[in-house]
Amino acid sequence: MNKTNRVLFLCTGNYYRSRYAEEIFNHQAGLEGLGWHAFSRAVAAKLFPENVGPMSPYTLNALQAKGIAPGGAARGPALCTVDDFAQAALVVALKYAEHRPMIERRFAGVAHRVEYWNVDDIEFLDPPTALGKIDELVGRLIGSLQSRQR
After folding, report:
1. Which parts of the sequence belong to the Phosphotyrosine protein phosphatase I domain (predicted)?
2. Is the C-alpha dihedral spanning 25, 27, 32, 38 positive or negative?
3. Residues 81/106, Cβ–Cβ less than 8 Å
């Protein structure tokens, strides 16, 4: 798949928010026949050993409740590289205040490409509310991409 139809979702640990955004986007894009595909990565300098399993139970449970079988359920969190930016036409980080400093420190040369959403991590916002915001934002993004294709 070429970069012209790929979205990269970024969050701190690639365990909860970005993984949910990736799976919801891919599910919705598939239903809409959009021809876009999402992938996700962590912007932290290292992964967090306290994150048990490949994906947050909150993410898995929310997807299961929607009847979505996550395509990336077996993949563990992955650190972002500059090459990941090169593989994406669109880059979205889930929280401006949290992620912008990390992105500017680790990826200064491509930081200007990042669009920021405003979805707090679990210690600041309960999962149903946070994941609901991601549902809404992904829906808006898909609508925007559909209008570009018309």
Report:
1. 5-144
2. positive
3. no
CA nearest to 21, candidates 149, 146, 124, 117: 117
Query: For residues 19 and 40, is the Cβ–Cβ distance under 8 A?
Result: yes
What token pair was written down for 88? 């994406």
Q: What is the distance between the alpha carbons of residues 100 and 132, in angstroms, rounded to a whole number?
A: 22
pLDDT at 119 over 80: yes
Q: 3-state DSSP call for residue 145?
A: helix
Architecture per CATH, 3-149: 3-Layer(aba) Sandwich (3.40)
Q: Cα–Cα distance between 135 and 123 in angstroms, integer? A: 19
Average pLDDT of span 39-53: 90
Residue spans of the domains in the chain: they are: 3-149
Which tokens in the block code for residue 84? 């990941």
Buried (b) or exposed (e) across 21-47, using 16+ Cβ within 10 A? bbbbbbbbbeeeebebbbbbbbbbeeb
Write down the pTM of the prediction.
0.95
How many Å apart are CA 134 and CA 94, to the nearest integer?
9
Q: Which of 83, 67, 68, 71 is nearest to 38 (CA)?
A: 71
